[in-house]
Structure to design on (235 residues):
């Protein structure tokens, strides 16, 4: 979930803090002291906007274009004396909040990549204290167990090309599921990614015990080692 990403969470809270700071400054400068809960509601409504969405950094970015919330507040308050004049700064702050959150998002992406390396297997597998191997295909035989030096082994694993023509044909060009030559018959369950990374992934282990496939929402990454990560007797 998004709040598992500690960097995004911190910058989201920073953005909220900036909006709160600006709201307090506006409040202190105004001669007419408005109801605090109404100010909060106006800022929230001011956030509503017509936005466009586009992919960037493997995520969907939302760019506010039209201040729908500001327009709604204007039509509701324009005939109520000085209400619109008094609440307008907060409505505009709400709309500006979209860009404050957007700026925080971009900064968090930059900081995230300084802290975490998505090309390292340890980014996805950091804690195996509760991990277990689950066979997910008939090709996965026995009761597989991780080797005692599993974490040391994966730290040496390098990214490799996932598919070749032969492996693709072996895996998918077979009519009978039972006869498929499944390349990754083992699922690594209950492992934990690096703390605070929010790296949600499905981890598969290759039949020969030397390869690991990481499937995330955005991509698949394959890692290969000369050493086996499963105990020899279980392969």
């Amino acid at each position: 979930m998004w709040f598992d990403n500690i960097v995004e969470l911190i910058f989201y809270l920073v953005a909220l803090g900036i909006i709160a700071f600006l709201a307090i400054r506006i409040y202190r400068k105004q001669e007419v002291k408005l109801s605090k809960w109404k100010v909060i509601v106006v800022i929230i409504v001011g956030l509503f906007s017509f936005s466009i969405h586009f992919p960037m950094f493997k995520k969907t970015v939302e760019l506010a274009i039209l201040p729908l919330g500001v327009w709604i507040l204007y039509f509701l308050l324009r005939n109520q004396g000085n209400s619109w004049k008094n609440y307008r700064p907060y409505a505009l702050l709400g709309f500006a909040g979209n860009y404050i959150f957007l700026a925080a998002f971009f900064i968090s992406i930059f900081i995230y990549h300084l802290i975490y390396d998505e090309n390292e297997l340890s980014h996805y597998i950091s804690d195996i204290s509760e991990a277990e191997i689950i066979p997910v295909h008939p090709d996965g035989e026995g009761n597989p167990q991780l080797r005692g030096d599993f974490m040391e082994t994966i730290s040496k694993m390098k990214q490799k090309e996932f598919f070749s023509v032969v492996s693709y044909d072996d895996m998918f060009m077979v009519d009978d599921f039972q006869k498929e030559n499944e390349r990754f018959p083992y699922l690594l369950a209950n492992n934990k990614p690096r703390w605070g990374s929010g790296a949600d992934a499905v981890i598969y282990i290759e039949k020969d015990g030397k390869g690991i496939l990481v499937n995330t929402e955005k991509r698949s990454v394959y890692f290969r080692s000369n050493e086996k990560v499963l105990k020899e007797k279980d392969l």
